[in-house]
Amino acid sequence: MLFQETIANPAFGLVPWVVFFPLVGLVLNLLFGRRLGEVFTGTVAVLASGAAFVVSVLLALGLAAHPEPVVVPFLEWLRIGDFAANWDFRVDTLSVTMMLVVSGVGTLIHIYATRYMHADVRHNGDPGRYRRFFVYFSLFILAMMILVTANNYLMLFVGWEGVGLCSYLLIGFWFEKGEDGIGNAKAAKKAFVVNRIGDFGLLVAMFTMFWAFGSLDFDAVLAAAPAAAPGVLLVITLLMLLGVTGKSAQIPLFVWLPDAMAGPTPVSALIHAATMVTAGVYLVARSAPMFNAVPAAQAAVMWVGAITALFAATIALGQNDIKKVLAYSTISQLGFMVAAVGMGAYVAGMFHLITHAFFKALLFLSAGSVILGMEHGEEAGHAKGHGHAEHADQGDHGGLDPQDMRNMGGLRRRMPVTFLVYLVGSLALAGVAPLSGFFSKDEILVAASRSNFIVLGVLLLAAFFTAFYVGRQLMLVFFGRERTPAAERAVESPALITVPLIVLALLAAVGGALNLPGSHLLETWLEHTLGAGEPAEFILPLAGVALGVALLGLFLGWLIYRRPFQREPLERTGPLFRAFNRKWWVDEAYHALVVRPYNGISRFLAGDFDMGFIDTVANGAGVLVRRLSGWWGVLQNGFVRTYALMVVVGVVSIMLYLALR
Amino acid sequence: MAPLYYYIGLSVIMFTIGMLGVLLRRNAIVIFMSLELMFNAANLAFIAFSRHYQNMNGQMFVFFVMTVAAAEVAVGLALMVTIFRTRRSIDVDQINSMKG
After folding, report:
1. How far apart are CA A349 and CA A345, in angstroms?
2. Nearest CA in chain B to A635
3. How does DSSP assign A22-61, residue by residue?
4. Predicted-complex ipTM score
5. Is A107:A56 a contact under the CB 8 Å cutoff?
6. Of A30, A375, A648, which is closest to residue B19 (Cα–Cα)?
7. Across the interface, which of A636, A641, A645 has its CB nearest the CB of B100?
8. How far B53 CA lies from chain A's nearest CA (Å)?
9. What is the tens place of the pLDDT at every residue in A342-353?
10. Taking CB atoms and an 8 Å cutoff, what residues of chain B touch A649?
């Protein structure tokens, strides 16, 4: 079958290689990476990801000629009675789009990481971990490819769990670092546990699917979905939504993503911004016929997304850590995408997913470049050292926090390339006109204007906050005057870092061309998989309002932060800023409402219940048996004649019983 | 010919004497002899019934019993000799090291 497929359509037969190239890279690095050094390791990882990208491009070209979905059978995996779940590769416009994003952005981030991790492993004092990083990275690409090429929900779940594992491993990459030496490990554990809650939803959704349809194949399930009982579909879709909130960091399960910034910056860019967290959006788009059949579930998805978009945008306003701002921004933008797919605007959601992958990966990587520059400046300061006693670092031993925006300022002169690409990414994120973010966000707003005006208002407000925190961040990081000696000595990063940034900046700038209002390239492309929807039109007044909101936000950011300041200007808003800064106390609330009761129950079960009750029962049984045997042991007195007497008594009693019966 | 219950009565008396000997005496040799008495009481009953019912099965059993008893005595006496060598006594009440 695979053979025939290869003959008939050479490109599609290649599809397993999107998974196997990363696998080859992983194995090579695992076996030889330590011996052959950093250059080898980095090259192998980049080539593995790049080869997957080439295969994806070939698949896309093949699909351009024959856009119908193709299933490439690969391996019979499970067969239980009538139920079969095989490892087949699904090649359709949706999955290939995801493959292109994952491997394309992934390759750029790999290139960046070869240099970034070179510096990072030295800064953190363990160069031996360079190889481990790229092994995990290849593993991530592999798992993500399994996720997007799956042809049934079970295989998708394999990838889903695989990327979750990689996320866990990479958040905890410096597991012995962080607050109290366990901060990073705690962040990794939090991501893992919170994701499990979402996975529980997806698992039960799959069980229900199997119960209702007897299959987990996309084609079978989605074909049967419109005819199924609405109640069953509602259960499935809402449970799926729980999975989406976990993986794509939506309310109420978004709390893991900000902490996930404990991982190295390329990890934040690749996994926690560009690809893995969009898996939830992909899942909803993939299950479109099921969601279309239950408007209630669609509404739930839409509201979750819209509220998350606004909520996270407000939190991003109050953060001082450059990566935390971007993390909450990611949650907010994911909210836009989830809201879009909830409104049935799957193309708009996927469009925003793609452009967001470009500009958010760009922003994270540039932030990494900024952090490198700051770290370099700090180390240079220590090297020169003594003359700057009055500039002594604020922190005691650990030095200053190279991620705190309050320590930056004026970097536009020190790091001109990073500044330019950051500017492009920021403006794209804010939604300024010719850049990609403007077009994709506009499509979501158009869809919102068609479905629900309150949601439109919420999203516009979120867009305003987005522009505002973008302006704030730009001003704090790049404008004004240097606020610390480290910022004064910051230097531009080397070419291996800036070149991927420039490429991503170009993509972020022109990515909107994918689905320009006139051409609808992406729309017609995805129609082959998602079915024809309402073509997104360009509503000029709405676009004008969106652009105006973005510019207003940026302008406000400039206005408030243009002058040097001692205290955060937003603190004048009092409790509001405190709420933003403290993240609306969500972590504290979860701690009080979930973690503490849970710990209490655990402690009770471990102490009073297990050590108290269960152990008493178990030990009591033992004591009882010992005491009973003590009593009966008296009979075993060692006198043979007593035993003989017992035999006689026994025989006589049996005889008596038989005789008198 | 004497009636059946004469034989059975004698057998019961022999068996009871043997049983009391096993239960009451402490000398292992005497206990063995009492056991033999019980075997022979059983044998007598077998023979009597065999004759009464004109059935050879009983006589067959007697041969088996005699064979087993001979083997048992051989093993038992060997045990007694060994025990006597180690403990200088064959008083069964003193052989009590296996109590619980």
Report:
1. 6
2. B100
3. HHHHHHHHHHHHHHHHHHHHHHHHHHHHHHHHHHHHHHHH
4. 0.85
5. no
6. A648
7. A636
8. 23
9. 998 999 999 999
10. none
